[in-house]
């Protein structure tokens, strides 16, 4: 598949935004039993604002993928059958909940509404829980857009969904660590630790995905594509000399070597480097290294998403192998 | 229920591209606006087509065979491109089974093209919407046209009658009979898309001649033939 930068930006940006939001809610939850220090409301409010900015940036990027962005509102119509439609509906819901969560913290609506045992429930907690569920649902919708296309065998696996969730969460917690480091908040260790854990989980999930994809047995062959039983069957011409939509949309147009290099690059940038940087920041107590760790990982995730597209081989490519 | 479809006879397709140009001409001149080309007179022309003729080579030289293979939307009975469309622009007509795109609803997200294993959909780079073969829906449903013209443009253009058009759900239609009696098959059956279009396989035309047909073994003259021959034609040289 041709990796479109609009989609690369969309999926990585909203992933980091959702992850940062999850990190804010996690921080608040951990503060309830005093596992970590409770923060002032502004900490969560600004964190949510940053998450919202990432989500907005992702949404803006997504419009560049559309031929007719002015009709984008129509995309909410077929939510019963289309994962893309479901994503289009749930993304604004998540954005609204992130905004509401941040706004509730900003307004310090922390008065107890009701109590469950020792747990004092306030507006921010309720919004945080609902927002978390919506955010996870958005991860699933985004990933299922790819995982649900059975023709792209590289994508048609639950590992695609796991990857999207873990990559988004890892980069979001990394962003939370960077945010805490930037404002000199002690939570940087807490977020950094979670970021490393999630990065390692994502590494396991992505390696399993790579391993699976290296062994894919192709369902379609040139024989089934044109229905002729012969072992030696080659295309001589695809019917057009100057290429077509089919040659532009479904081929990455790079050498196998380039694709392999991007794979090594993301494996380096997403996993070991940020983990080392977080570790180094823990030792040196540097406020800059977590920010660098996030930037490095985010760059790596863009390479990962490029690779994710490039490695997917569409069966229609069988019909577009040769120009006379 | 009606399911209109094409049946393409690979045995007689000569790869002349008449269906391609005829399709392009009809569909670029219609009510839906042009099928736009880019760089049409340059070194690398490209554009939107509903139908393409591809050529495959079977076997190794000198034992090869050239197969010309026209490819267009197969109007699947289980079209995977339809449910993925977020706007409902992509739909299958309930009355005749033709898979269509509503160009006024399409947002150009290209998701349907990912969900088609045949590469039958092509984006119009000018109108920025997805386009595909309509089986000339504006022509086959036009009651003002005489009955014989109510066929897709490609079918009418084909000089060798390699393209048949009709209802594959009607067991007695020309297309159903052709599929049944001449081994019509579907493309990529492994995906369960149930393409409505079928292809008729290549068939070798073989002529079997018995020695009897060349030499009359019971020729009574041969038994007691006393004639001296000097290479001229005899009754034995005549095929009966």
TrEMBL record, chain A:
<feature type="transmembrane region" description="Helical">
    <location>
        <begin position="159"/>
        <end position="182"/>
    </location>
</feature>
<dbReference type="GO" id="GO:0009390">
    <property type="term" value="C:dimethyl sulfoxide reductase complex"/>
</dbReference>
<dbReference type="GO" id="GO:0019645">
    <property type="term" value="P:anaerobic electron transport chain"/>
</dbReference>
<protein>
    <submittedName>
        <fullName>Dimethyl sulfoxide reductase anchor subunit</fullName>
    </submittedName>
</protein>
<dbReference type="Pfam" id="PF04976">
    <property type="entry name" value="DmsC"/>
</dbReference>
<feature type="transmembrane region" description="Helical">
    <location>
        <begin position="264"/>
        <end position="283"/>
    </location>
</feature>
<feature type="transmembrane region" description="Helical">
    <location>
        <begin position="43"/>
        <end position="67"/>
    </location>
</feature>
<feature type="transmembrane region" description="Helical">
    <location>
        <begin position="126"/>
        <end position="147"/>
    </location>
</feature>
<dbReference type="GO" id="GO:0009389">
    <property type="term" value="F:dimethyl sulfoxide reductase activity"/>
</dbReference>
<dbReference type="GO" id="GO:0005886">
    <property type="term" value="C:plasma membrane"/>
</dbReference>
<feature type="transmembrane region" description="Helical">
    <location>
        <begin position="188"/>
        <end position="208"/>
    </location>
</feature>
<keyword id="KW-0812">Transmembrane</keyword>
<keyword id="KW-1133">Transmembrane helix</keyword>
<keyword id="KW-0472">Membrane</keyword>
<dbReference type="InterPro" id="IPR007059">
    <property type="entry name" value="DmsC"/>
</dbReference>
<feature type="transmembrane region" description="Helical">
    <location>
        <begin position="88"/>
        <end position="106"/>
    </location>
</feature>
UniProtKB/TrEMBL annotation, chain B:
<keyword id="KW-0411">Iron-sulfur</keyword>
<feature type="domain" description="4Fe-4S ferredoxin-type">
    <location>
        <begin position="64"/>
        <end position="95"/>
    </location>
</feature>
<feature type="domain" description="4Fe-4S ferredoxin-type">
    <location>
        <begin position="4"/>
        <end position="34"/>
    </location>
</feature>
<dbReference type="GO" id="GO:0051539">
    <property type="term" value="F:4 iron, 4 sulfur cluster binding"/>
</dbReference>
<dbReference type="Pfam" id="PF12800">
    <property type="entry name" value="Fer4_4"/>
</dbReference>
<dbReference type="InterPro" id="IPR050954">
    <property type="entry name" value="ET_IronSulfur_Cluster-Binding"/>
</dbReference>
<dbReference type="Pfam" id="PF13247">
    <property type="entry name" value="Fer4_11"/>
</dbReference>
<dbReference type="GO" id="GO:0046872">
    <property type="term" value="F:metal ion binding"/>
</dbReference>
<keyword id="KW-0479">Metal-binding</keyword>
<keyword id="KW-0408">Iron</keyword>
<protein>
    <submittedName>
        <fullName>4Fe-4S dicluster domain-containing protein</fullName>
    </submittedName>
</protein>
<dbReference type="InterPro" id="IPR017896">
    <property type="entry name" value="4Fe4S_Fe-S-bd"/>
</dbReference>
<keyword id="KW-0004">4Fe-4S</keyword>
<feature type="domain" description="4Fe-4S ferredoxin-type">
    <location>
        <begin position="97"/>
        <end position="126"/>
    </location>
</feature>
<dbReference type="InterPro" id="IPR017900">
    <property type="entry name" value="4Fe4S_Fe_S_CS"/>
</dbReference>
């Amino acid at each position: 598949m041709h990796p479109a930068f609009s989609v690369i930006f969309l999926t990585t940006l909203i992933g980091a935004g959702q992850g940062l939001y999850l990190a804010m809610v996690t921080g608040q939850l951990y503060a309830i039993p005093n596992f970590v220090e409770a923060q002032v409301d502004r900490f969560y409010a600004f964190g949510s604002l940053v998450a919202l900015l990432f989500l907005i940036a992702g949404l803006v990027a997504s419009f560049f993928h559309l031929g007719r962005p002015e009709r984008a509102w129509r995309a909410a119509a077929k939510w019963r059958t289309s994962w893309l439609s479901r994503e289009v509906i749930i993304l604004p819901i998540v954005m609204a909940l992130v905004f509401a969560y941040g706004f509730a913290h900003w307004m310090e609506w922390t008065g107890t509404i009701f109590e469950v045992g020792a747990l004092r429930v306030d507006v921010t907690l309720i919004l945080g829980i609902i927002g978390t569920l919506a955010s996870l649902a958005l991860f699933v919708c985004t990933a299922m857009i790819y995982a649900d296309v059975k023709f792209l065998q590289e994508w048609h696996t639950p590992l695609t969904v796991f990857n999207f969730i873990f990559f988004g969460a890892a980069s979001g917690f990394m962003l939370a660590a960077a945010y805490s480091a930037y404002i000199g908040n002690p939570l940087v260790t807490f977020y950094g630790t979670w970021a490393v854990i999630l990065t390692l989980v994502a590494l396991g999930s992505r390696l399993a995905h790579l391993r699976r994809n290296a062994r894919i047995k192709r369902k379609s062959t040139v024989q089934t594509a044109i229905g002729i039983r012969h072992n030696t069957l080659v295309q001589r011409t695809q019917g057009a000399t100057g290429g077509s939509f089919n040659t532009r949309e479904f081929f990455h147009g790079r050498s196998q070597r380039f694709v392999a290099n991007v794979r090594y690059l993301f494996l380096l940038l997403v996993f070991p480097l940020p983990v080392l940087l977080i570790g180094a920041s823990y030792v040196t107590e540097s406020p800059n290294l977590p920010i660098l760790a996030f930037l490095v990982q985010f760059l790596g995730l863009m390479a990962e998403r490029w690779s994710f597209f490039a490695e997917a081989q569409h069966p229609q490519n069988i019909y577009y192998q040769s120009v006379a | 229920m009606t399911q209109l479809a094409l049946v393409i006879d690979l045995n007689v397709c000569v790869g002349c591209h008449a269906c391609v140009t005829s399709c392009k001409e009809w569909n670029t001149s219609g009510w839906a606006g042009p099928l736009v080309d880019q760089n049409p007179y340059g070194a690398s022309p490209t554009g939107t087509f509903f139908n393409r003729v591809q050529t495959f080579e079977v076997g190794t030289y000198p034992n090869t065979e050239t197969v010309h293979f026209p490819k267009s939307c197969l109007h699947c009975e289980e079209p995977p491109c339809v449910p993925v469309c977020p706007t409902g622009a992509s739909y299958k007509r309930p009355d005749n089974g033709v898979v269509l795109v509503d160009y006024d609803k399409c947002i150009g997200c290209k998701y349907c093209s990912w969900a088609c294993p045949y590469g039958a959909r092509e984006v119009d780079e000018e109108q920025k919407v997805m386009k595909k073969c309509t089986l000339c829906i504006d022509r086959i449903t036009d009651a003002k046209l005489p009955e014989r013209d109510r066929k897709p443009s490609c079918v009418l253009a084909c000089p060798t009658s390699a393209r048949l058009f009709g209802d594959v759900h009607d067991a007695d239609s020309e297309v159903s009979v052709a599929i049944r009696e001449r081994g019509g098959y579907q493309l990529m059956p492994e995906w369960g898309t149930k393409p409505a279009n079928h292809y008729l396989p290549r068939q070798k035309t073989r002529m079997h001649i018995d020695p009897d047909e060349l030499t009359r073994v019971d020729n009574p003259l041969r038994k007691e033939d006393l004639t001296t021959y000097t290479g001229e034609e005899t009754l034995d040289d005549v095929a009966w």
